[in-house]
Input
Amino acid sequence: VDLKECLQSAEFISSSNENFKILEDGSVYTTSAVSLSAEKKTFTILLKDIQEHVQKKIHVSLVEEEKKKTRHARDTVLKRTKRRWGPIPSVMIENSLGPFPLQIQQVQSDTAQNYTIYYSASGPGIDQDPKGLFYIERETGNIFATRAVDREQYPSFQIICFATTPDGYSPEVPLVHTIRIEDDNDNAPYFTQDLFEFSVPENSKPGVVVGKVTAEDRDEPYTLHTTLKYRIVSQNPPVTPAFSLHGDTGVIAVLLPQLDRELVSSYTLLVEVRDMAGQPFGLCTTGTAVIRIEDTNDNAPCFKQTQYETRVEENRVNVEILRVSVVDLDEPGSPGSGAVYEIIRGNDDRSFEITTDKNTNEGILCVVKGLDYESAKQRILVIAVNNEAPYMLAPHSQQLSQSTSSVTVHILDVDEGPVFKPCHLRLDVKECEEVGTSIGRYLAEDPETGNSEGICYRIPPGQCNWISIDEKSGEVRTIKVLDRDLGEMRQGQCNITVLAIDRNGKTGTGTIQVVIQPGNKNYPRITKTDYIMCRDRKPICLTAQDGDESPYSTPFVYRITDRSLASMWKITRHNDNSVYLSPKGDTPFGIYNIPVSVIDNGGKVGENLVKVNLCDCVTPTECDINPRSDPNGNVTLGVWAILAMILGSLLLLLILITICGCCGSGVMHRHVTDDCANHNLIISNTEAPGEEVM
Output
């Protein structure tokens, strides 16, 4: 770019795009790799005359150069080029002490005497401007550093050196030079957490991994400066070392063969990390790891006392009578210390119950069923205790037996009301018994005296009014006829509460269950008594019913009580309540009224009259129950027979009327040939003579 033409007195030259560098002679160089898009890439060159306060801009547009066609191998022209000097990367010690300015490298050109540089940094601190860090002597080409450099901020620099002639011409291509900042072990390693917390179950075996501590170092990776080693500095409490720390990985593992939470609940480890592979001259940092020992149920609960005594009044229910406590060395509030109580002996009738108070871990013994002083003046219970979690045997220890304790419960006597024995009495009453029938006696006793003297009985109102009880003797009688077919008695039973009152006014209650036993009060009867039997004489099925229940109903016994009819008809058993009725031999047609008696299982006889129309028919619809013939031989006509005769007569009369009407309407003429032969031969037209015929 011709700068002189634009501004002759330009003192300051700059580019709007840092990817391009402009020298005083107008040469334009790229400071980094440039990727041109399909469109033009533009930037601006700014020229300033500071004294005259003049400023001008030159707009530059770059277009991608078209690729030249490649020559064939035979057309290739070899050109000789001048060999350029490329210095190896320079090294600058991090945090160098100088003296500054510190010479880093020297660049020289055979044709130029003036040198300038442009440099860029790479690293996490590139957002900070490193200007003034390097400069080059214009005449000698010596590159100097003006101050110390932190490698963690600027790991390396790339310097582009430009060589020009006194008149501003650049005869050579810019030289790229790299300055690498050599790492100094100036950063101590540090732990990634202020406090590491781990936990491990007690009684864990040696070698079980507890956790891992981690540290980092900001120095150059994969060098001794970042090669870290871990170790345990101290352990609190200062007992036998319980844990090991892997020097390379930082993994903490169990070392002690027996960790007992009840002795030491947690350990605090002071751990150290050192770089330079742990060498004494390496930098180090310490951290803290706290390891909590988790509880396991390796301690069985034990009763504080082996014997307890308590008292309770008889007949008291749902009342707490005793609290028992245990000692458990496991962690309070955990399943390993939670107590579970049970009564293992002396509670066969389940009068007692024991539960656990979750707040105090005590066992609460309660009476859930009333106790009787007269039956037993004291009860002895045996209580056992376990934990919610299963017991885990600690290493090198023996199995412990279950802890038990005995509880003696003294029962206190209380003045009680009368007690019915039994408390529930069943009385069976036969159905339809007479009013006032004695059906039993219901007595109560005084628990203290054991007799029934001075006790009165009565039935409270509002119950089924079936029975009464004698106030003094307790005798029970019916006050109405009990019939299972009437109203409230259909259920067949009723529960009646009875009161017993002693001289002191104390009461007791009992229950009488009155059950009405079925009686034989109903006669068996045949459900259908009218039948039609056709000429096929198919047997008739007779079925009886009885309103009574077993054993006063089926099986039934059927008999024909009339001897003359018994000789003409027979009964065949079908099942318990049905039989077949059929005629014997050739019994004539007619209507028969057959007396049949049915006897139930209780011996009660029911008389029935079965009417059978033995009819000369194919289907029963052809006959009805009106008489056609009687046993004495007198023939009678039924309704259907008379109706058939009338219809036949009418049909015959209609035919005669029709014939007479046709004959009277005209005269019939018939021509008879001569050879009729007295109308005995049929006229024939055959030519040959016929045979002799009669």
